[in-house]
Amino acid sequence: MKFMLIMRATDDAVAAYQEMPFEQVIEAMGRYNESMMKAGVLVAGEGLTDAAEGFVVDFSADKPLITDGPYGETKELFNGFWILEVSSREEAAEWASRAPLGPGSYLEVRRVTGPEDFPADNEWIEKEAGWREEQARRAEQQ
């Protein structure tokens, strides 16, 4: 099973992070990432730039509206993520609890859907499976 760990924080947690030496943050995250790589559970993980660099596409109107960041409250922002391949929800929770995050930070943990979650005989599900196979072949050739 794949799970996404979505990193979020309060204003206080963001302020505390900004007070920490950057090398300390990088080292803590590096050690955490390394532990997941060594365990063979880390599929992907990235941090995100400041929300001021982002934008939102709102589909509430007939024509989608694009609004530059920052947007929303800090607690609504998504600061980074990890995707883990683990055997259970409990294992995902165990890895999430080891993240080097402080007070005011939290992880939202969500299962990533897979082919088994959709009808196998759907045209678009079949096409996506083909696209993924093709992508895997290309990656092997590189």
Automatic annotation (TrEMBL):
Q: Which domain of life is it from?
A: Bacteria
Q: Where is the YCII-related domain?
A: 1-112
Q: From which source organism is this entry?
A: Microbacterium sufflavum
* Name the record gives this protein: YciI family protein
SUPFAM superfamilies associated with the record: Dimeric alpha+beta barrel (SSF54909)
Q: What is the lineage of its organism?
A: Bacteria, Bacillati, Actinomycetota, Actinomycetes, Micrococcales
Question: Member of which family?
Answer: Belongs to the YciI family.
